[in-house]
Amino acid sequence: MTTQTTTPESPSTPNPGTPEGLVPIPPAIGRALATGGGALTIVSAFLAWTWTSAFPGDLTVYGYPGGLQVLVLIGGVLTTLFGLASYGVKGLGWLVPAGATSALRLAALGTFATAWYTILAITFQLGGIVNLEPGGYIVAIATLGALLGALALPFERPEPDTADPEDTPRERLVLDARNNIAVIKAAFASGTPTPARKLPAYAEILIIVAVLGLALTVFTYGIGTEYDELFLGFLLTTGFGFAAVAKAGLVSRISAITAKHRNVTLLGAFLAAAAFPFTQSDDQYATIGVYILIFATVALGLNIVVGLAGLLDLGYVAFLGVGAYTAAMVSGSPSSPFDIHLPFWLSALLGAAVAMIFGVLIGAPTLRLRGDYLAIVTLGFGEIFRIGVLNMDGTSGPDITNGSNGISSIPNLNILGFDFGQAHSFGGFTIARFANYFLLMLLITLIVVIVFRRSSDSRIGRAWIAIREDETAALAMGINGFRVKLIAFALGAALAGLAGTVQAHVTYTVTPEQYQFAHVVPPNSAFLLAAVVLGGMGTISGPLVGAALLYLIPAKLQFLGDYQLLAFGLTLVLLMRFRPEGLIPNRRRQLEFHEDAEAPTVLSKTGV
Amino acid sequence: MTTETTAPNTAATGQAVLDARGVTMRFGGLTAVRNVDLTVNSGEIVGLIGPNGAGKTTFFNCLTGLYIPTEGEVRYKGTVLPPKSFKVTAAGVARTFQNIRLFANMTVLENVLVGRHTRTKEGLWSALLRGPGFKKAEKASEERAMELLEFIGLAHKRDHLARNLPYGEQRKLEIARALASEPGLLLLDEPTAGMNPQETRATEELVFAIRDQGIAVLVIEHDMRFIFNLCDRVAVLVQGEKLVEGDSATVQGDERVVAAYLGEPFEGAPGTDEITEVSAAETHADTTKDAAPGKETDR
Questions:
Q1: Of the partner residues A478, A487, A595, the one whose CB lies closest to the CB of residue B89
Q2: From A463's CA, which of A27, A414, B115, B155 has a CA 20 to 30 Å away?
Q3: CB contact under 8 A, A470 and B163
Q4: Under CATH, which number does the domain B1-92+184-299 receive?
Q5: Per-residue pLDDT tens over the stretch A308-342
Q6: Total-model pTM
Q7: A152-183 burial by CB neighbour count: b if 16+ within 10 A, else e?
């Protein structure tokens, strides 16, 4: 018999494990307050918030929500839905496999943040609280009530660390802080998801269609936000909304469905993306769309190198440059040293092939290095490309690339008589220049997605992952590490080169300054890597989402000016601290974080 | 010896699968392995023992191409092994590691499929084009991998991440992964380190089953009972040199081996009577003593 130490019960602290909310309101009232607040928020979104249309978005109309009101409305709907689900309303249970409480808290918090941001923005911009109409007050009270109600809901408190009587006051302070953080964390923790009821295949496909439609709507809305306040509100609402939906366990449920119907998802996503230019009346947003696509495609190519094979490549943008320069030189541009005009399919293949050759040339000597050494050497090679191109101007070196002027006036593509520079109309929709390129680039993205998916789910893909996991063991299993890594490097380079061939035509001009390591405008090596890490390594949708965010946020937050890169760095640090697996984690990594999951989650072979 | 040996003494004499001659490994001025000869015949289980730091793992690494021996040569079925570990595996020598080196974030099935790498040919193009040949090869690989998982008893955990397996199953999986490369010789580096007696016993059965499939086994181990139960022949390595080689009885009876492990007897050492007395008292006092005298696993 071993001696047992009895844990001293301290009477002052509440009994650990007792469900209790953060705010001392009875849970029943809290729940009602949260749900009612959500409902009232919906109503108030239809009221006028201010008397003048001086505040952007025209929040003066009764019965028709505008601008930020729409976002608050969405937040209110989410809050109400999760509130009702927490009551156990039939039919809403499917939405919250992991419990509604944390989701309700986050939804209420998001709505509160967006609504109060709007109210404060009105107050400060228009000079005083008098500018608010009754609707403004109502929304402020409703969201505050919903938030307080949601915070009053009970949750399992973690066992606090007990204080040592010999602690100095400073140590006490630290201990208290740590306990408080643990409590707040527990308040937003989600429960274990209940297994989903089996749905018929058509219902699952309908869900996929609905989700893709929603994604397209959100993306289109985000691109189309016209003023800074709206974009900030959009970020707040989508950020908290996504977190709430994720906490409800809905994201993992839907990703399980998409993993089941991968081809349907891929086709649906392609169609949804192809529908994007048709939803835009203005070519301005298609421009953003095509740049995002280029950035995202290259990031996805980099994901093969970084996410699958685990090779940290800091000079990846050089391959995009190789592809772009190759395409520019054979495009018949007057500033190209070669007087050739190849058809696009040939120049695309050529661009990919030349980039692949560069990939092999750079990879062959460097891939014998591991880890940090490889990163440093690739960083060097990326700069060598830029400086080399800069100097091949006829004075410092041979006249090939036209130096810092780059190759300009690259003609528009013309495939089978379809001129990409002209606006075309199809059945009432007008598709202008950038929308044309958007559709072409989408095809390239599709190719890259398929290449990524097929290669990762094969003998070679498994070898890449094995190398990433443990190179020595992989070698001992008979994998020729160098060869396999070189294939990953060359494949990544070829895909970037392919994207570069379209980029050259979209931008009219290619200059060495487009292909730096770090720069304010993506794509550059640092942003590419950030997109991969931010989105989620080893997944397909991760880099696409990461790239979209990393392109949109700097483009929309112009008012930050010089602080843009600072904000970017801060965001990245915070994200890596709180969500190291990225926004869309690989299923592999998800399993890593649920070690004690009872039933084995079936692992799809690639990230979705 | 409490447990009786189940090793049948059949097929002990086959042709040499592994033939290491005069293997010497120097790291700068330090000679880790000095002039070691070792043969493993087909259908044989050979043990390699020695105190810590005797050079057992270094010798293993010389055999598997992780190190290139400074002198000497290693032949597998008559051909000299190439100095690259992946080529050694392709030639037919598979190994496990002292500290488990599974691909932690891959599933159990994927781990075994990686082991099939040398026995399949599909490259990038066939993966991208997905012809009928690709599908057939993937299916065949998966079937073979599942057979191996059945063999070690992990088929029901095919979709678990390797990192989530309990320790003993990780060891087994590592063996299955090595077997997936269809080796003629399997090298096990401390397969029972950190296992309890039941698990050790199960591993013993597993190694016998592997031998019965016609795969020769060379095993490093500290668990003497395990080694002497299992092996047809045992070689003792001390300070980089082979001290003695022979069957269990020869090695166990050899004074130099005892001296190498326990040191020379000193003046006033306790006699046998006192030792039995003390051990009897110890048995009485503590019946639940940890019975796995393996090396501490440094994971």
A1: A478
A2: B155
A3: no
A4: 3.40.50.300
A5: 998 999 989 999 999 999 999 988 888 888 888 88
A6: 0.82
A7: bbbbebeebeeeeeeeeeeeeeebeeebeeee
